[in-house]
């Protein structure tokens, strides 16, 4: 024996995009999905954040913060529920 199979190391992991499922009449996507450039927190995000122990200003968040958040998580390729994204 002594013969070992040589495998080429992966230089980057494959990213599979999972689109959100949108249902009319429901204010947020259903099921798990990867982050996408048009993602937005729910309309009651500021209230939800308070229940999770994060006091946000009344106007919520800065657009630049949202863009930074989306850019980071798009690169990560994680798949989560809408509320899980909000908890990040």
Automatic annotation (TrEMBL):
Protein name per UniProt: Primosomal protein
Protein source organism: Acinetobacter baumannii
DnaT DNA-binding domain location is 33-88
Known Pfam families for this protein? DnaT
Transmembrane spans: none
Q: Where is the signal peptide?
A: none
């Amino acid at each position: 024996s002594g013969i070992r199979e040589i495998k080429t190391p992966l230089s980057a992991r494959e990213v599979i995009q999972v689109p959100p499922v949108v249902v009319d009449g429901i204010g947020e996507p259903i099921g798990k999905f990867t982050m996408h450039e048009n993602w937005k927190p729910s309309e009651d995000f500021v209230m939800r954040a308070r229940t999770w122990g994060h006091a946000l200003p009344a106007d919520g968040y800065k657009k630049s913060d949202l863009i930074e958040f989306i850019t980071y998580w798009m690169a990560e390729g994680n798949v989560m529920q809408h509320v899980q994204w909000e908890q990040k």
